[in-house]
Every structure is written in structure tokens, then in C-alpha cells.
User: Fold this.
Amino acid sequence: MAYPSVRQPRLADVITERLEAMILEGSLKPGHRLPAERELAERFGVSRPSLREAIQKLAARGLLTSRQGGGTYVSERLADSYGDPMLEILSRHDEFQLDVLEFRDAMEGITAYHAAMRATPADKEMLQRRFEALDKSYRDPDQQSDPLREAKADAAFHLSIAEAAHNVLMLHTIRGLFHLLEKSIVGNLAHLFERPNARQLLMAQHRGLLEAIQDGRAEDARTLAHEHLDYVKTGLMDLQRAESRARRAERRSQLLGDPHPR
Assistant:
């Protein structure tokens, strides 16, 4: 009986698959520069011509780009791969913030669970650094005057949890929503900081979530992520109800003050 011959994969194809996997898993992020060709070839233990061929294939697919002045970069367009015109609409309409928070609750609860199960020492180190940056943004009076910087630090901490979950679909979905996530957090923080001790409570929630992931307590991490987002959602709903009551009172005042209501 004759058996079909086994074809050995070409080295350039193997390198291509490795680089694709690194982009998918988030090791290589949109906009990041690849190491120098010689360094990358040494890391992979391959020849520079094979590496160069793999890079050319990925460039032809739109995954890598070369910039003037040298260097090969992961394409910035990959950050928009999960883009949708609906997301742009959502980002401009505050009344849909509750929808964003409900989606975050569903996604971030499960990513926190998996992060606690799967986070590597490198993931935990990154989580700690992002948490410290977030803590600094809440404590530093100069940063407190810039809601966008606070929101970026907050969103970066939550994104690092998604990275630690090691699920490429979860990661790229949340990363694709990063701009919308930042804008949602800007609005939410502005409302929440009107409440007494809101910053301290939010940091306590973030710290509890960090510690649960660091300790591998998956169910606790999922619960804490839900409790954090439920607190944000409750604060937003309270604000919306207060604004609705104020608008009704204003309409009644205008009606009673108008001798010729229409």
C-alpha cells in the first residue's frame, strides 16, 4: 500500500504562522515596531532570508507595514478591525451608556474569570503596573483635572485583564471597543465623582479585582468585576433619574408661569 508523502512546511511559512499567532494573542499590538531583523532571526533561530520572506508575506496581507526611516510595524488598521459605523453612533449618544455598561458587565466578568485562571507572571506584573498608573491618576491633582487621562488609565487596566485572559476573541473584541470604552468611562467618572468618596471606593473595587486575579480566585474575580460595573451602572441610573425629575420640574414651572400655555 502506497502512502502519500509528507510535505515538510517551508520555514518561511512556519515563521509567518508564528508572527500571525503573536499578533492574534496580543504579543504584537497594532502600531508596535518589530525587533530588528537580526534580533528577530536570532530569537526564532532562523536565517534572515527566511524571516524576510515571512515579513513580506504578512506585509502583502496588510498585517505589517514599513515606515519611512526604517522599521517594520504591526499595521495600525488592525486596531479598527472590529470597527463598525454603529460604534461611532454609540460613542456620540450618551443615552446608550447603560447598553455599553451591560455589555461590559457580560464581557469583563468572563475575562476576569479567565484572567484569574490563566494569568502568567508577566501578565500579573503588567496588571500591577496598570493598577499603579490608575491609582496615580486618581491621586494626582494634576491628572484629576484631566478626565480623559483618568479614563485612559482606567480603560488600560481593564484591557490588561482581557490580555491576561488569553482568549483572542475576547481580547480583540474589547480592544476594538477601546475608544468607545474610554469615552464611556470619561462620562461615567464625571458623574460618579460627584458622589462622596467615589474615587476611594472605585480604587478599592479595582484593588479587590486585581488581588483576586493575582491570587487565582476566578469566581471572586468574576463577582468583583460585576459588582464594580453594577456600582457604575447604579450611579449612572441615579443621575439619569435625577436629571429626568429636574426636567419635569422645569417643564411644570414653565407651564405654570406662562399665562397662555400652548
Notes: The CA atoms of residues 35 and 43 lie 10 Å apart.
